[in-house]
TrEMBL record:
Superkingdom of source: Bacteria
Protein name in UniProt: AraC family transcriptional regulator
GO terms assigned for molecular function: DNA-binding transcription factor activity; sequence-specific DNA binding
PANTHER family in alphabetical order: ARAC SUBFAMILY (PTHR46796:SF6), HTH-TYPE TRANSCRIPTIONAL ACTIVATOR RHAS-RELATED (PTHR46796)
Species the sequence originates in: Alteriqipengyuania lutimaris
Lineage: Bacteria, Pseudomonadati, Pseudomonadota, Alphaproteobacteria, Sphingomonadales
TM regions (residue ranges): none
Domain spans labelled HTH araC/xylS-type: 201-301
Keyword line: DNA-binding, Transcription, Transcription regulation
């Protein structure tokens, strides 16, 4: 049904621009989905007709959360396009998508289990999840089988979790995923030994704490950790380079401030200053380059999205969208969308 398709398209706008596959008719679209949200983790099982999901730069700007997505293709198949190229994903395969980055997915008729986890869940666990984008865990791998069984167990028990149990399950899922980081098909080497991963974790924490300081940069990290510039640059290389990483985190923090209703009275200049940019102009140029829109456009777009009148009563879709935008739903709950 076309109305159902429009609701689904609206509900997942924080994640993707959605369309039917070329030549298909939205009137023929069909969807059945069940989802559970707990402890900042979401797990859903969805059956739908062929679809096209596009996560471009504008879509990346819609979601304040820093999420990792895992898709288990249970039936059907899909084509995934990332910066690493194009890959065919078949039944039993699991793919990983870093939602800070761009991708495009084209499906046939499908049944998927999808897990969404904030990067904060991986704090303190060993494994470099930053290099998982586009990674495929193939169906024949015994470790992939273990991950599928874990997802099945999560779906089966999610509605029974207490708040504490949900948190434990979410942390366990993050640890399990992180432990597979070096075992995927492409054989990504982690950043080195565990001590290197731990060192990078500490340096990233310092970056987050110093986003407000315009003088903070690679030299400050070298001084704080007693490392040479080549060592720091080498550690941050998988993340796109140290200077680029710091700039992205400043922009991401600015994005969060711009989309938070509590900051509506803050000027663009104040937000730029709080995120360590030397001037409004420097901030606006960097923001436009990253998100293909100005800070003011993003702020206005958020207001328009929240006031969309056509879907005010679509409770299940609104709950899903609010979680994707804000990630602040604390209690365990489930909701279903039936087509």
């Amino acid at each position: 049904m076309e109305e159902e398709f429009e609701l689904w398209r609206w509900g997942i706008t924080p994640l993707f621009d959605l369309d039917v596959r070329p030549g298909a008719d939205p009137v023929e679209f069909a969807l059945s989905s069940s989802a559970y949200h707990f402890a900042d983790l979401s797990i859903s099982r969805t059956t739908a007709t062929p679809s096209l999901f596009d996560r471009n730069a504008s879509v990346v700007a819609r979601s304040a959360n820093d999420l990792l997505m895992l898709i288990w293709v249970m039936e059907g198949g899909m084509q995934l396009r990332t910066s690493r190229g194009e890959s065919e994903i078949g039944p039993g395969d699991i793919c990983a998508i870093d939602l800070q980055r761009r991708c495009r997915i084209e499906t046939v008729n499908y049944r998927h289990t999808t897990v969404l986890m904030p990067r904060s869940l991986f704090t303190g666990v060993t494994g470099n999840v930053d290099q998982l984008h586009g990674t495929i865990f193939r169906s024949g791998d015994p470790m992939t089988s273990l991950l599928r069984a874990h997802f099945d167990g999560m779906i089966g028990q999610a509605g029974r979790f207490s708040g504490m149990e949900g948190r434990a399950a979410a942390l366990g899922t993050a640890s399990l995923v992180a432990s597979y980081c070096g075992l995927a098909e492409e054989g990504w080497a982690a950043l080195g030994e565990v001590r290197h991963a731990a060192l990078l974790h500490d340096m990233r924490a310092m970056v987050e704490a110093k986003l407000h300081d315009p003088a903070f940069g690679p030299d400050a990290l070298c001084a704080a950790f007693g490392l040479s510039r080549p060592t720091v640059y080498r550690l941050f290389e998988p993340l796109g380079g140290v200077a680029s990483f710091i700039r992205r985190r400043r922009l991401r923090h600015a994005f969060a401030l711009l989309t938070d209703k509590r900051n509506a009275a803050l000027s663009i200049g104040t937000i730029a200053n709080r995120c360590g940019f030397s001037s409004d102009a420097v901030f606006s140029r960097a923001f436009r380059h990253a998100y293909e829109m100005s800070p003011r456009t993003l702020r206005a777009m958020g207001r328009e999205t929240e006031s969309h009148p056509q879907f005010r009563e679509a409770t299940a879709f609104r709950v899903m969208k609010d979680w994707l935008l804000n990630g602040d739903i604390a209690p365990v709950f489930g909701n279903a969308i039936r087509g």
